[in-house]
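ARCHIVE CARD
CATEGORY: sequence design from structure
SOURCE FIELD: tokenized fold
FIELD CONTENT:
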């Protein structure tokens, strides 16, 4: 049996994916993969996702230069969620790397405080200067 057949794909042929920074353990982002994206990720060693909004494969960093080097691909106990352990690449400084399209380190930058969502992480780079 092909290793891809072990995954419980949803009705759209997708599986949810969490990207976690290998060095810090920070959860960077959540995305989706189809069979082709997961196979490409395993082959390249860089994250390739399925963009539901664009309806196409999306090589993370293709526009921003913020690629994700994949160290491990893990499958949860129910075979329906993937965890990628990654190094976030492409930020030229000693500051945290950028994974979010808002120019932040993590897509999970909003924290609930006193009944309101507050930005808990700074913008590291203006998104207008990131995307080509």
């Amino acid at each position: 049996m092909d290793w891809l057949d072990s995954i419980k794909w949803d009705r759209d042929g997708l599986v949810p994916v969490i990207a976690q920074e290998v060095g810090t353990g920070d959860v960077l982002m959540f995305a989706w993969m189809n069979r082709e994206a997961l196979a490409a990720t395993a082959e390249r060693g860089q994250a390739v996702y399925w963009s539901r909004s664009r309806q196409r494969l999306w090589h993370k960093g293709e526009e921003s230069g913020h690629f994700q080097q994949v160290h491990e691909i893990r499958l949860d106990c129910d075979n329906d969620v993937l965890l990628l352990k990654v190094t976030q690449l492409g930020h030229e400084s000693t500051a945290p790397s950028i994974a979010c399209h808002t120019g932040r380190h993590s897509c999970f930058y909003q924290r609930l405080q006193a009944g309101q969502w507050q930005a808990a992480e700074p913008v590291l780079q203006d998104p207008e200067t990131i995307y080509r």
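CARD ANNOTATION: The mean pLDDT is 92. Residues 94 and 124 are 11 Å apart (CA to CA).
SHELF: design records, drawer C
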